[in-house]
UniProtKB/TrEMBL annotation:
It comes from the Eukaryota. The lineage of its organism: Eukaryota, Viridiplantae, Streptophyta, Embryophyta, Tracheophyta. It comes from Rhizophora mucronata. This is Elongation factor G, mitochondrial. Mitochondrial GTPase that catalyzes the GTP-dependent ribosomal translocation step during translation elongation. During this step, the ribosome changes from the pre-translocational (PRE) to the post-translocational (POST) state as the newly formed A-site-bound peptidyl-tRNA and P-site-bound deacylated tRNA move to the P and E sites, respectively. Catalyzes the coordinated movement of the two tRNA molecules, the mRNA and conformational changes in the ribosome. Signal peptide: none annotated. One of its GO terms (cellular component) is mitochondrion. Pathway: Protein biosynthesis; polypeptide chain elongation. One of its GO terms (biological process) is mitochondrial translational elongation.
């Protein structure tokens, strides 16, 4: 019998095969025949194994056909109207309803009664739909800067976004804010120039504004067929096809050849598109410079690559209200925005000192999910989750990494505005909601095999406060319940207690923000509340270093109190994000290390109320250099009190000053009123930083102290000589009439928007006035 070498796995397989044949077969083949037969089977099994390895995972197609997008814009640019059309064309709703609920129904995504009455979006709303076999999760966000946290947390968890721009208003102040948020979270985006049917529509002006104001590397991928009342359809510059929209709701998209009278502008704009994309895409640049004919497929791929790399923003056009261009925008979402595994997401590994870890974004990994939004639903707390890795199933046990608590998933749902659809499981890339999970916004959940946390979102500080109290003492329980719920849902809404008056103080991003919550307390909890005068959230800080050396000594018969702290306080530059720093530079054990946290706590407590006007002290560094303790009388309380008194002792020597919130004000007024309005801004101690012309209008940009903007709505109305104001439904509100700053107010001949910029020191005369007012109020 032939002998087989037994060194390799192949040889061992063939030898085993031949041995088995000789034992089982009545007429075994010759060794040579067995070798050939065994080799055939070995190749066959190897090919099967390789095919199994090469087979794509089950989730690959599912994730590639998924898009998570947000729709964001300035006020009244048509975000919710656009979302309504998207839901209609994708078959999620069967009737189109308008914003403000003129037909008694209202837009699907504005599920709150207040939203339908006022015609504004207050809360971001999530939904999902299907287009050309792709699943799209959509979050519609508010446009008012007061509700900026809703935009912030939506963009934190989305893979792509649509920036909606008005073809008449162009790039406005909140457009810039939203675009800045998109950059912060590195979200690829499309721009959609809406309202081409309106009088004065000029998409090319808006395109130029995106380049100059937003610093977008952008170009149009469509050319409109007509404008204003003559707007009929669009020409796609990539496919070189014309599209018209027929039917009662524009549901029939008719494809045609490019109109002959538009051939020149289409050729010009397509060349411009290719040039702009070539600047950021090497592959297309090579073809362009070689004078090769660029196919539609090659151009589409180049636009996708540049958009995903955030080097290019494709600009789409249309009119959501007139049902034109929405289907092509949906095609653009599929073609140019990323699927979840094309976006890089990172977590912090808590078991390795917050080491940055790249997430695979696949269902094969361990579960990692972020709670980005909370809502009080009919069945308890509703927690919105974005799943970054792994799979979540109904009945699974998750661990909240921030609290360490184990939580069972009792119910898993997919949201459609305020409606829910129960599901059994969801995988990486999806946005879902769970019931009965007690957590805070920004908590991370895993299956326990890893200790990852996702980076938190940026939460701006409140700029305005308001004293509120229930009219009836019997409704105090419901009042507290409402405030606790709203505070948990909205990180920018804060609740505190005025130590002098005992009143409840609510703080937020602006007057509309606070007014909405007061109205919601009345409607949802049936509690009428009296509202005090709005007040500005000042801050205090120090301007120079000051030393402290304080001994707290108290004897009271039994164990006394003894604690001495020495060191200095110094200012932190205003541009730094750190508000409070505590450094322990003590060498040795003059103060036992167990008392150091109590000292830090004492300084923090003292910094909550400065001596000038009683507002929090920020941008300070406290350095502890020496001290003394007593073997019997020293305690945490003694050192905490020593720290509080030491801070008060040295505070005056550090030359404290008051910081006030300064707002970015943008006005659009007829040029004839420019002198009057500019003079009024100067009177309010504002600084004009920009003055542009837009047709017959002047656009003035200024930095103005918030404290000087009370009553500005009325003043602007008077200056622009217009009697009527078209507002958003708060005519009788004290807040509306006293400070109408943080939302756009159409004044007939002018409008203004205002958003928080930064806290800056006040002038000496203003500081004296504020200090005297505070002292008079305290004495009273």
């Amino acid at each position: 019998m032939a002998r087989f070498p037994r060194g390799s796995s192949t040889s061992r397989f063939l030898f085993s095969y031949y041995t088995a044949l000789t034992k089982t077969s009545p007429s075994p083949p010759s060794p040579t025949a067995a070798l050939l037969q065994g080799s055939f089977y070995l190749r066959h099994f190897s090919n099967l194994a390789r095919a199994k390895e090469d087979k794509e995972p089950w989730w690959k197609e599912s994730i590639e056909r998924l898009r998570n997008i947000g729709i964001s814009a300035h006020i009244d640019s048509g975000k919710t109207t656009l979302t309504e059309r998207v839901l209609y064309y994708t078959g999620r709703i069967h009737e189109i309803h308008e914003v403000r609920g003129r037909d008694g129904v209202g837009a699907k995504m504005d599920s709150m009664d207040l939203e339908r009455e006022k015609g504004i979006t207050i809360q971001s709303a999530a939904t999902y739909c299907t287009w050309n076999d792709y699943k799209i999760n959509i979050i519609d966000t508010p446009g008012h800067v007061d509700f900026t946290i809703e935009v912030e947390r939506a963009l934190r968890v989305l893979d792509g976004a649509i920036l909606v721009l008005c073809s008449v208003g162009g790039v406005q102040s909140q457009s810039i804010t939203v675009d800045r948020q998109m950059r912060r979270y590195e979200v690829p985006r499309l721009a959609f120039i809406n309202k081409l049917d309106r009088m004065g529509a000029d998409p090319w002006k808006v395109l130029n504004q995106t380049r100059s104001k937003l610093r977008h590397h952008s170009a149009a991928v469509q050319v409109p067929i007509g404008l204003e009342e003559h707007f009929e359809g669009l020409v796609d510059l990539v496919q070189l096809k014309a599209y018209n929209f027929h039917g009662s709701s524009g549901e029939k998209v008719v494809t045609a050849e490019v109109p002959s009278d538009m051939a020149a502008i289409v050729a010009e704009k397509r060349r411009e598109l290719i040039e702009v994309v070539s600047e950021v895409d090497d592959k297309l640049a090579d073809a362009f410079l070689s004078d090769e004919s660029i196919s539609s497929a090659a151009l589409e791929e180049a636009i996708r690559r540049a958009t995903l790399a955030q080097k290019f923003v494709p600009v789409f056009m249309g009119s959501a209200f007139k049902n034109k261009g929405v289907q092509l925008l949906l095609d653009g979402v599929l073609s140019y925005l990323p699927c979840p595994n094309e976006v890089s997401n990172y977590a912090l590994d808590q078991s390795k000192n917050e080491e940055k870890v790249a997430l695979s974004g696949t269902p094969d990994g361990p579960l990692v999910a972020l709670a980005f939004k909370l809502e009080e639903g009919r069945f308890g707390q509703l927690t919105y989750l974005r799943i970054y890795e792994g799979v979540i199933r109904k009945g699974d046990v998750m661990i909240n990494i921030n609290t360490g608590k184990k939580i069972k998933v009792p119910r898993l749902v997919r949201m459609h505005s305020n409606e829910m659809e129960d599901i059994q499981e969801a995988h990486a890339g999806e946005i879902v909601a769970v019931f009965g999970v007690d957590c805070a916004s920004g908590d991370t959940f895993t299956n326990g095999s890893v200790r990852y946390t996702m980076t938190s979102m940026n939460v701006p500080e409140p700029v305005m406060s308001l004293a509120v109290q229930p009219v009836s003492k019997d409704s105090g329980g419901q009042f507290s319940k409402a405030l606790n719920r709203f505070q948990k849902e909205d990180p920018t809404f804060r609740v505190g207690l005025d130590p002098e008056s005992g009143q409840t103080i609510i703080s937020g991003m602006g007057e509309l923000h606070l007014d909405i919550y007061v109205e919601r307390i009345r409607r949802e909890y049936k509690v009428d509340a009296t509202v005090g005068k709005p007040r500005v959230n000042f801050r205090e800080t120090i301007t120079q270093r000051a030393d402290f050396d304080y001994l707290h000594k108290k004897q009271s018969g039994g164990q006394g109190q003894y604690g001495r702290v020495c060191g200095y306080i110094e200012p932190i530059p205003l541009e730094e994000s750190t508000k409070f720093e505590f450094d322990n530079l003590i060498v040795g054990q003059v103060i036992p290390s167990s008392f150091i946290p109590a000292i830090e706590k004492g300084f923090k407590e003292a910094a909550n109320s400065g001596s000038l006007i009683g507002h929090p002290v920020e941008n300070i560094r406290i350095v502890l250099t020496d001290g003394a303790s007593h073997a019997v009388d020293s305690s945490e309380l003694a050192f905490k009190m020593a720290a509080i008194y030491a801070f008060r002792q040295c505070y005056a020597a550090a030359k404290p000053t008051i910081l006030e919130p300064v707002m970015l004000l943008e006005l659009k007024i007829p040029t004839e009123f420019q002198g009057t309005v500019s003079g009024d801004i100067n009177k309010r101690k504002g600084v004009i930083v920009g003055n542009d012309q837009d047709g017959d209008d002047s656009i003035i940009t200024a930095h103005v102290p918030l404290n000087n903007m009370f009553g500005y709505s009325t003043a602007l109305r008077s200056m622009t000589q217009v009697r009527h104001v078209a507002n958003v439904g708060f005519e009788n509100s004290f807040l509306y009439n006293s400070l109408h700053g943080v939302l756009s107010v159409l004044q007939g001949k002018g409008e203004f928007t205002m958003e928080y910029k930064e806290h800056l020191p006040v002038s000496q005369d203003v500081q004296m006035q504020l200090v005297n007012t505070y002292k008079a109020g305290t004495a009273a």
